[in-house]
User: What shape does this take?
Amino acid sequence: MNIIKKENGNTLNIALEGRLDTVTSPELEAVLKESLDGMTELVLDFEKLDYISSAGLRVLLSNHKTMSKRDGMKITHVNQSIMEIFDVTGFGDILEIE
Assistant: This one.
């Protein structure tokens, strides 16, 4: 998985490419942990994300909780297969998806 990180003022933009699974989710978790200090908003771009596992969902949920105390977290460019996973797991009702 590739993680492309850009800061824009108090907004952290993360674009993910590939698979967010048991192997790669610790990498995303580490990037977010080191990058969220001072950030008020988190935007995750899933345009090139092919797959997300339960380990990836756990990272999203934990960061959603953190960012809900700030300006929030949103996910953009979600493809159909990942949206189906969000719908089946109930994450579609929890997360802000554009």
